Amino acid sequence: xxxxxxxxxxxxxxxxxxxxxxxxxxxxxxxxxxxxxxxxxxxxxxxxxxxxxxxxxxxxxxxxxxxxxxxxxxxxxxxxxxxxxxxxxxxxxxxxxxxxxxxxxxxxxxxxxxxxxxxxxxxxxxxxxxxxxxxxxxxxxxxxxxxxxxxxxxxxxxxxxxxxxxxxxxxx
Length: 172
Prior knowledge:
Keywords: Membrane, Transmembrane, Transmembrane helix. This protein is an all-alpha fold. The chain has one domain (2-32, 42-171). 76% of the residues lie in helices and 0% in strands. It contains 9 helices and no strands. It has helices at 2-17, 19-34, 44-57, 59-71, 75-95, 98-101, 103-120, 126-147, 165-171.
């Protein structure tokens, strides 16, 4: 129930603030500066957006960063870095250089969660972490559906939903 409420509220806020549109405009600006168009059109934006979302939204990113911040256990982040490195090679071979730039938001995202976890350690419960992981997993499912061209969900508009269970668990 908490995950559903977080998805609805986080998605509404994200759509109002147009996270996806702003991010796409930012990436398009980067693309114009850093990549040249091919005859099929550039995959730079697609590579950057897809891999950034894939690496940042995942349950391992959230849980690993939380474990790192709360207990100093970095094993999940180490495992995730190996998986991300291998997948980045595969993505870069098909999508191009946009994959490389996804390391910057990934570092900022995981670093922010780790620092936030250290600050919020007294408030975060196992239930909050479980709900955050659930929301992250649902967003990974949405990314997968987008990659398969089954649907076009603006996943970035829902990114705030990952953090809402922290407050929702306290009030429910």
